[in-house]
Fold EPS-associated MarR family transcriptional regulator.
Amino acid sequence: MNTPLAEEDAHWKVLCLLETNPELSQRELALALGVSLGKTNYCVRALLDKGLLKMQSFQNSKQKLAYLYVLTPAGIKKKAALTGLFLARKIKEYELLRKEIEMLQEQTKAILD
């Protein structure tokens, strides 16, 4: 089962990818995310249902009809909020890892001295 944190990360990653590459198909999006096509479809549908994305059709030489996934103003705002949360979490993880590395370096130095 998806945790809220994992779902937020998935939504953030999808919003980031589609903001810069709105022409990505769900199959290409799944490949870029490293998840199944079904999970990607579920995530995109959730973002569409929440009004964070909208679909626009366009002609594509490879396919007769394809879609652009465009972030709505609410999607842009949500992406910014999720980016802030993601960044704060990563900074906290970095600080914990830095402290662990310092502790291991001190232990190693004490053993070698």
Remarks:
- Residues 4-112 form a domain with the Arc Repressor Mutant, subunit A fold (CATH 1.10.10.10).
- The CA atoms of residues 54 and 70 lie 5 Å apart.
- The chain has a mean pLDDT of 91.
